[in-house]
Structure formats: structure tokens, C-alpha cells
Write a structure and sequence with these properties.
Layout: H1 5-17, E1 19-21, H2 22-29, H3 33-45, E2 49-52, E3 55-58, H4 68-73, H5 76-89, E4 95-98, H6 102-109, E5 117-121, H7 124-130, E6 136-140, E7 144-146, E8 151-153, H8 155-161, E9 166-172, E10 175-176, E11 182-184, H9 187-198, E12 200-206, E13 218-221, E14 228-231, H10 237-246, E15 249-252
Parallel strand pairs: 4-5, 4-9, 5-6, 9-12, 12-14, 14-15
Antiparallel strand pairs: 1-3, 2-3, 7-8, 10-11, 11-13
Amino acid sequence: MALNPRQLAILQSVREQGSVKTEELAQEFGITLQTARRDLQRLSEAAELERFHGGVRAVDSSTRNITYTERQRTQAGAKQDIARQVAAAIPHGASLFMNIGTTVEAVASELLQHRDLRVVTNNLHVARILAANPQCEVVVAGGTLRHEDLGIVGEAALNFIRQFKVDIGLIGISGIDADGTLRDYDMREVMVARAIVEQSRQVWLVADHSKFERPAMIEMAPLKVVHTLFTDLAPAPSQQRLMEELGVRCVVATNSL
């Protein structure tokens, strides 16, 4: 199915943002709501986008994540809001695990003024960012380097993580099922994340709204292992009820701009 230049531009915009309201797309492209709905219908019929009430989201694969560069761009503003909220909640003198993920990296950028931190990470981006904070001791896991995003995975990383017990395990995730199951794409990454959960006194999950009901093939853990979920928009009522039942605290970041 051939797409016109505007529809291709809309597709790119949605892929970068993850999910967008129809009204926002109409404003962004200077078109009427009716025209926006027609374009979205065409993109949906082409299996490029998935529609939901009031908006549209990028079609995700359950077996393959988007590229690291795309992940950096997707929901960048939301990730920054979440990062500021998380950093404000981390006390000076804390010990943390920080795993693979662009939202976790955004948090690292907000910790440059924190004092007396000790961070154990399998993410070389996190290590590079926190190297600028002389008040933060960074301990880097050994293992197999994943070239695309500089994540460290594998048996050696898994065994390394198990040597520590920290105050806060800060983790990202690729998708959260409707039943609360946390999911990701790489079994090696999932195994390390499970070890982080086991070795943390509290588990903090950072996930923007596009991660809810996003498909990913591998189960990492049930939502009940999470003490606090930081996100950018209030979850759907069904998701809020589930978190209340499981005793998961949900913190919705506020836009500081």
C-alpha cells in the first residue's frame, strides 16, 4: 500500500514518540481531525500503526526491540520527567543497581550532583555518565558486551551482580502486560535483571506510558516484585487497580517545564 509524504512523516513521528493522540498529530501537521483520522486509518490498514481510543501507537514486535537510537528518541521528554522524579527520590549515600535502558540512562544524568553514591551497573552508558560525578563510586559488571547499546550481559555479569546487596535496584523494562507481567526481548538481559531484583532491598521500575501492554516475548518477573513504579502518565484504571492490589506504589512524574 503506497503512502503519501505526509503519511510517511506521520509514521516517523509516531515511531519516535511511541504513541500519540490524534488531536496532537492534527496540530503537528496542520491538518483537520478528519484528515488525521483518514491518514491513521490508512496507516493502520497498512499494519504500520495500531489505533486505540483517541490515538495511535507504533506497531511493536514481540521478538525484536527497536534500535538503540530509536529508543533514545522515543518518549525522550517523558523519560526526562521520570528521571528527575526518580533522582529527587534517591537519597545521598544510597547504593544502587542500574541496568540496561535509556530511561535508566536518563536517571544517571540526573544524579551528577548526588553525594556518596555507590552504583553497580551492567550499562556502560550509565558508567560513562556517572564518571563525571566524583562523589559516585561506579562498579561495572564484567561479561559479554552487547555492541548496539553497550549493555553487558551473560553468565559472568549474572555472577557479578549476585555478589552485591543494594538499597535500590533501578530497572527499565520493554513491556508491561495487562496482567502485570514485566517483559523484555533478550534472555541474557532478562537473567541479569532478575538477579538485580533478587539482590535489591527495594525495586524501582522506570517505564513511560508506552510500555504498558507493549508486547515482548520473554517474561522477566511479575509486577509484584516492584516496590515503586515511576511513569509519566496516570495508568489506565485497570492497571491502577492491579498495582493497588499488589501493593505497588505508582509515582506519576510531573513535567517541570
